[in-house]
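Form 12-C: Joint structure prediction
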Amino acid sequence: MSAVLAVPTRGAEFARAFPGPVLSPPSEGASDDAKRIRDCLAEIKNWASRRLGSAIDPRVLKRQPASTTERLHAALASAKVMTSEVVMHLDREWRDRLFAQLDDLLAVEDWHEDDEPLLDESFRTFLRLILYQKPKRRPGLGLSHRGHLIAAWTAGADRLTLECASDDTVRWVLSCEINGERERAAGETHVARLPQILQPYRPDRWFADADQAAG
Amino acid sequence: MPQYKRPPITEAVIEIRFEQPFPRPEVDKLQQRFRSEYAFSEDFIAYEISVNPAARRADFEEQSSGYKLSSADRADVLLVTSAHVTCSRLAPYVGWDRFRARAEDHWRTWKRVTGYRKISRIGVRFINRIDIPVAGGEEVKISDYLRVHPEAPAVKRMVSYAMQMSGPLEEDDCRFVINSSLVPPPLVDHASVILDIDVSRAGDPPQKDDEIWALIDRIRVHKNHIFEESVTDKARELFNA
Amino acid sequence: MPTKLPAEDHVVRYVRKRLLRRDSDDNVIGVLPDAFNMREGEKYLSSTWLEHFSQEYEKGLSAAAAAISRQLDVKPRDGFTVGNVGKIVETCEKFEVRVRLLNEGKPENTGYSAIRGVPRDHIELFEMLAADVFIDTRVAAAIPAPA
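Section 2 - Result
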């Protein structure tokens, strides 16, 4: 029997562990065997980094500042490749719609030079949020000037806005009617805590819909 | 091979390598020929870095260079390089028939542009990622999901591993490479493990088109066999959830 | 000399496309809270006094949008959102924030006005401004040019 997995899967522990080295370097050795192991570990790193699906950042190859178009294409490419890594957990229609939203959000013709394109780490948090919360209704998407994806749900006068930062951090703000009174709240939390935080506000008012968001 | 509702495939690859590298102008010609079929074209370089501590130097050796052509959704990829032609499909996997048809179509186009070139290796690679739910503090063992895993009786808890096995297959003079490691899980409350299976033929591979593609079909069968032998029924439940 | 804006009047704030609030079908339905967050280096929120150009709302909005477009690179799918001055002040006071809306006209935009005193990163305040105060949001391409 193999050992029990003790991998962090959420929260600050997860953020500290990933992205981190997959392999742990051992204590330094002087023998030929130690050198062979070191070479093996280096080879493993090599093959792990040579996945064909990984987009190559054109800025690295050209060694000059990227144009706006290149920056936007790189951000879009990265988001789509990240989505492909979890697409087995998403409905096809939801993925297609998400891509259309991203294409529109990062359209070159609408872009301002001084805006920050979508950050990879923000999009990663967004994907984890969507796959964990499993909203049936799609959010409207925006982008903060820091490059953080903003997901917004609106049901009449009831509003929920989530800004996806790095490391599973979500800044949330909501306004909704509870027992005839308007309540407002805001905070910052981890993706895994969000369902508990939203639960008193009956999040189905935003998330429930006939469309499937996550399979 | 059973059909899964949610196959864990993150990338499927068909690669044909050549004995002699192509000169750059020919690679450029190939890129121009395929460009209209793909939304994006980016430079591609495969390289190896070797470190020489005694000389206090790192050497950067280019293995191949060319272009990476991608569809608008970035799921269909074609690499045209000086050393190989590679057709790749990222998730969602579209099924073998569609994937193979695209690869074969590109191969025929390739040959029309370049003419015959001696093939040195034919390979099929499927990278799978198994996302294992670990919510609620339950104990999870890789062996519950994979038959390919490290085992050490003295080790009770594990946070990382990476392993590779390779060797000959009895059939078709092929060779297998299995890579497996824990990777950062894209889902909350999950652990993720890669099962990467590559089957290839490098010794005297076929050179005629019908034989090449017949071999690729057989390689796929060998790959499927390795996959099915490597996963447990508990893993299959995840692929059908 | 900066002039204090009357409480019954309105200001128009320019909002880039990425900060427009959309429904699940991508229709523009307002602005996101971040539309009121200052960027690095900014010391106040920019806006334009609508009634400076006309007492008629739609004419004032057209002229204000045109004036902003003379100052900034407004793209067709960017937006403009309108808020009442008195409500802005009242809403900020609910969060114990005192703001001043002052007309500080510029040559290319004589209606240019600064909203001074808005704190950074006050997401609850911004949400209230977005939900209850700046309730008329238009896409730039949908605003006719002034006559």
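Section 3 - Comments
The longest helix of chain C spans residues 57-71. The mean pLDDT of chain C is 96.
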